[in-house]
From TrEMBL:
<dbReference type="Pfam" id="PF02668">
    <property type="entry name" value="TauD"/>
</dbReference>
<dbReference type="InterPro" id="IPR003819">
    <property type="entry name" value="TauD/TfdA-like"/>
</dbReference>
<dbReference type="GO" id="GO:0046872">
    <property type="term" value="F:metal ion binding"/>
</dbReference>
<dbReference type="GO" id="GO:0016706">
    <property type="term" value="F:2-oxoglutarate-dependent dioxygenase activity"/>
</dbReference>
<feature type="domain" description="TauD/TfdA-like">
    <location>
        <begin position="118"/>
        <end position="401"/>
    </location>
</feature>
<dbReference type="InterPro" id="IPR051323">
    <property type="entry name" value="AtsK-like"/>
</dbReference>
<keyword id="KW-0408">Iron</keyword>
<protein>
    <recommendedName>
        <fullName>TauD/TfdA-like domain-containing protein</fullName>
    </recommendedName>
</protein>
<dbReference type="GO" id="GO:0005737">
    <property type="term" value="C:cytoplasm"/>
</dbReference>
<keyword id="KW-0223">Dioxygenase</keyword>
<keyword id="KW-0479">Metal-binding</keyword>
<dbReference type="InterPro" id="IPR042098">
    <property type="entry name" value="TauD-like_sf"/>
</dbReference>
<comment type="similarity">
    <text>Belongs to the TfdA dioxygenase family.</text>
</comment>
<keyword id="KW-0560">Oxidoreductase</keyword>
Length: 430
C-alpha cells in the first residue's frame, strides 16, 4: 500500500462511519450478547406471552404497557464502542456498606418476622411474615448483614412494585442501570429476567439437551441463559453486591435456583493453596460485547476488568473466592495453561460441593399480583437456574442489582470457618 493510500484511510473516521451505519439501519443491532434482539423501546411481542400475574403486578404499579413490554433502551442510547461502555460507571462516589454496622443479632428484623427458616447449615434463609416494602432502615441494614452472612435470603408472598424494588436496591448501593438489556418500561434499573421472552423475541435456541452445556466449558459452548453457574456484572469497576430477583410468574413445579457460597468455596481449599491464591488478581469480562473503536471490523469484544481473585467482604470481614465459569477469564501472574487449570478447578469447587449450596423452590403465590423475592450477595456466591419446566409454564422476574465497593483483598482478614471456629481439618488431603 502506498503512503498516499494509508494517509487517505487514516483520514476517514471509521468509528464514526460504523456508528452511523449501525444506528441508522433497522437490520443492525447495537450491543451483542446472549439476550440480544433488534427491538428498541417497548416490544409488542412480549405482550403476546405476558403472564397474567405479571400483567397484574405491572398494571397495579402504574407501568404503561400499552405499546409493548419489556423495553430496551432507545437505540441512540446504547453504547457502540468498548470505551463508551467501560466509562459508563467509572465515576467516583461513596459506597455505604449497609450491613457493616447493623446489629449482629438482627433483633429488629427477626423480632418482626413470624418465622426464620435456614435452608441449609450455612447457605440460604427464608423469612416468613414480613413485607419487603414495609422494612425500615434498621431492618434493611440487618437484612444486608444477613444476606452477607447467609449468601441468599428469601421472602415469599410479596406485594412489591418494580419502583419499590428499585428504591430498595438504591438503598443497598447504587442500582445498576444496564445500558442495553430488557427493562421494565419507564423504570431503568429494573432488568427483566424472562427466558420465555428471549425465545419468543429472537428465537433463543434452548432445548432440554443444550440448556446447560456451558457448564462444561463456557468459552467453547454457548451460554444460553441463567442455567450456567455464574455471577452477575463482574466486569464493573464496582461489581454487583446485593442482588434482588423478584419472580411474579412461577411454574407450579420447576425453575428452581441454586446458590453456592464463595466463603465456603475458599474454605474447601488447602491452607497452602489458599496462600498461593491470596493476593492474586484475575481478568473479569462482561456478558455483552462492544466494538473496538480502533478496529471495529474485528467484531464485538467484551469489557475487561481486573479484580482480586480472593476478596474480603466489607460487612462480614470474611475472605471469599471470586470466580465464575462464564466471566472469569484468566489469572494474572501465571501462564495461560496454569490459569486454565487453576480456574477450572476453582469453578468445580463451587459447582460440585452440595454442602456449600442451597437450592430454592420458588412457589407461585396464592394471592394475585404477589411474587417471591430472592435477595443474594453476588460478591460471595454463584447461582444457576434449572430449566426443567422447559418453558411450558411461564417464569418471569424483575432484577435489581446494587453495585458494591471497589473489590479489595485484606491479607489480615479471616475465612468464614476460621472466624466461626469451624474445623479446617486437612487429614484426608494426604
Ligand atoms: Fe444471574
Amino acid at each position: 500500500m502506498s503512503n498516499t493510500a494509508t494517509l487517505k484511510l487514516e483520514a476517514i473516521p471509521v468509528d464514526k462511519e460504523v456508528e452511523n451505519l449501525i444506528r441508522s439501519s433497522d437490520k443492525l443491532s447495537v450491543g451483542f450478547g446472549q439476550t440480544e434482539n433488534v427491538n428498541y423501546g417497548p416490544d409488542p411481542i412480549g405482550l403476546d406471552i405476558l403472564p397474567e400475574s405479571t400483567r397484574q403486578r405491572l398494571v397495579e404499579s402504574g407501568i404503561d404497557i400499552s405499546k409493548g413490554y419489556p423495553s430496551r433502551p432507545d437505540k441512540s442510547l446504547v453504547p457502540v464502542f468498548l470505551d463508551e461502555a467501560t466509562a459508563i460507571r467509572d465515576d467516583d462516589y461513596e459506597y455505604i456498606e449497609r450491613g457493616k454496622n447493623a446489629d449482629p443479632e438482627k433483633k429488629a428484623l427477626f423480632g418482626a418476622a413470624k418465622e426464620v427458616i435456614n435452608l441449609t447449615k450455612h447457605v440460604g434463609t427464608e423469612i416468613v411474615g414480613l413485607q419487603l416494602e414495609d422494612l425500615n432502615d434498621k431492618q434493611k441494614d440487618e437484612l444486608a448483614l444477613l444476606v452477607a452472612e447467609r449468601v441468599v435470603v428469601f421472602f415469599r408472598d410479596q406485594k412489591l412494585s418494580p419502583q419499590k424494588q428499585l428504591e430498595l436496591g438504591d438503598y443497598w448501593g447504587r442500582a445498576e442501570r444496564h445500558p442495553q438489556t430488557s427493562q421494565v418500561n419507564g423504570v431503568p434499573g429494573v432488568s427483566v429476567i424472562w427466558v420465555d421472552y428471549y425465545r419468543k423475541s429472537y428465537g433463543l435456541n434452548l432445548t432440554f439437551k443444550n440448556n446447560a452445556l456451558g457448564n462444561w466449558d463456557a468459552t467453547k459452548h454457548t451460554v444460553r441463559g441463567p442455567q450456567v453457574w455464574h455471577t452477575d456484572l463482574v466486569h464493573e469497576k464496582r461489581p454487583s453486591g446485593i442482588t434482588h430477583l423478584h419472580l411474579d410468574a412461577i411454574p407450579n413445579v420447576g425453575g428452581d435456583t441454586s446458590w453456592a457460597s464463595g466463603y465456603a468455596a475458599y474454605d474447601k481449599l488447602s491452607e497452602s493453596f489458599k496462600k498461593f491464591l491470596d493476593g492474586k488478581k484475575a481478568v473479569y469480562v462482561s456478558a455483552h460485547g462492544y466494538l473496538d473503536r480502533k478496529n471495529p471490523f474485528s467484531g464485538p469484544k467484551r469489557i475487561e476488568r481486573v479484580h482480586p481473585l480472593v476478596r474480603t467482604h466489607p460487612a462480614t470481614g470474611w475472605k471469599f473466592l471470586y470466580v465464575n465459569r462464564t466471566m472469569t477469564k484468566r489469572i494474572l501472574g501465571v501462564s495461560s495453561v496454569e490459569s486454565d487449570l487453576i480456574l477450572n478447578y476453582l469453578f468445580e469447587v463451587y459447582e460440585k460441593n452440595a454442602d456449600i449450596q442451597a437450592r430454592f423452590k420458588w412457589t407461585p403465590s396464592s394471592k394475585p399480583g404477589y411474587g417471591t423475592s430472592a435477595i443474594w450477595d453476588n460478591r460471595v456466591s454463584q447461582h444457576s437456574a434449572a430449566w426443567d419446566h422447559e418453558g411450558n409454564e411461564s417464569r418471569h422476574g424483575t432484577r435489581v442489582t446494587s453495585l458494591a465497593e471497589i473489590p479489595y483483598f485484606d491479607p489480615e482478614s479471616k475465612s468464614q470457618r476460621e472466624d466461626l471456629g469451624l474445623s479446617l481439618d486437612e487429614r484426608d488431603f494426604f
